[in-house]
Amino acid sequence: MRLVIHKGASEVGGNCVQLISEGKSIFLDAGVPLEELEDKDKKPDLIDFSKIKASNKSTILGILLSHAHQDHFLSLKNAGDIPIFTGEPSYGMLKVLKDFSMDGNVPLENVATFKDGEKFNIGPFTITPILVDHSIYDAHAFYITDGASSVLYTGDIRFHGRKKHMMEKVFDRFASPDILLVEGTNILETGDEAIYKDENSLEEPMTEFMNKTKGLSLVVCSSMNIDRVVTVFKAGLKAKRELIIDLYTAEILRAVGNDKIPNTSWPNVHLYLNGYHRSIVKRNGFFDMVKGHGSGRLFEEEINKNRSKYVLLYKKSHYKFLEKNNLLDDSSMIYSIWEGYLEKEKSLNDLLDFYKIPFKFIHISGHMYKKNLVSLVEKLKPKAIIPIHTNNKEMFREFENALLLDNGEEYEVQGNYKSP
Length: 420
Ligand SMILES: [Zn+2]
Ligand SMILES: [Zn+2]
Known about the structure:
By secondary structure, this protein is an alpha/beta fold. The chain has two domains: 2-190 and 366-412, Ribonuclease Z/Hydroxyacylglutathione hydrolase-like (Metallo-beta-lactamase, Chain A); 199-361, Metallo-hydrolase/oxidoreductase (Rossmann fold). The protein has helices at 34-38, 49-56, 70-73, 88-99, 164-167, 203-211, 226-238, 247-255, 275-284, 287-292, 300-305, 319-324, 346-355, 370-380; strands spanning 2-7, 16-21, 24-28, 59-64, 84-87, 111-114, 120-122, 125-132, 139-145, 150-153, 179-183, 217-220, 242-245, 269-271, 310-313, 332-335, 359-361, 384-388, 410-412. The strands form three sheets. The chain has a seven-stranded mixed β-sheet. The structure holds zinc ion (ZN) (2 copies). One zinc ion (ZN) is lined by residues 13, 69, 71-72, 156, 389. Residues 67, 69, 134, 136, 156 line the site of one zinc ion.
């Protein structure tokens, strides 16, 4: 099989890898690099599938989506009628993103879903999706073979989340792949320097900070990072605070379809519909959607009366409405996403400055560290290692079998395939 990284070889995100065998091809992810996503002045440069099809003369049979982060899916906008394969919860989350116009119009008419560990075939390729830990629900690695050679693609991955024990054995069945196509976001960090050692260890400092707060406790985190939503929920319980979420988050939690995860049918999880979402509901007729979350809905007056009883997942769209209803008095904020986003969030910085809101950064990365990579390589003994999703692929040279590809460079995978 031949392998081409179209995007992601020398940047964080944007992953798009083509595997070609017998004139047929599949893609692993179809994203847009993080740097392009953050540049609001420029339109992202999406993958052009018809151009690729013409240039390497292969029939495109499908695109495998490892997880529902934009840096992996946004180029699906150009997928046309190419079938998309992803996990059921990821499909659910993509539909919610579409409902709330947050996805750049990815076509979802042609999506087939797969399950962790269940092999399936697309043309000459046999694919095993492998559920892994990452800062989003339902992230997968893929083991792919065409019967002659094999590729293990990690997607985005970490070993310190809520699934960390599961992660110790996750690739046991997939040792000695011909290629380990591995993410290298945090290749410069050993992991020993991290302030918090795993997802669980965020809980206590969050509780402590909430306990010091007299008013509403605000937490900024990604709604699709369900590990983190659970952390906030649990920290809140310990601080005797019930969770308040917005309509978008409520829908994400519903879409993953796991009743062990906090959702609005729980007595201590509440929906607050801010004015921005009220107008979306009216415009799109989402009345049944709201009704579905209705039992624990909270209005401004109730929140205001009992500000110390709640922790609110803060969204940009809340700002105006929290301010208008005096909900920010005595509040505090926990920032639980990548620190780099903060400097770009003008409205958030204004709010913090103006209300002199106590602020604490409590976060752990969604990506593995170098020590995880070293043990992964020791364990799997891949024939070759190809880095992706990294600004520092040169750092991989310390592995003697590293193979540094550039975007667009085609590589013939040397096969030594053995059935796992
Ligand atoms: Zn990514
Ligand atoms: Zn990701």
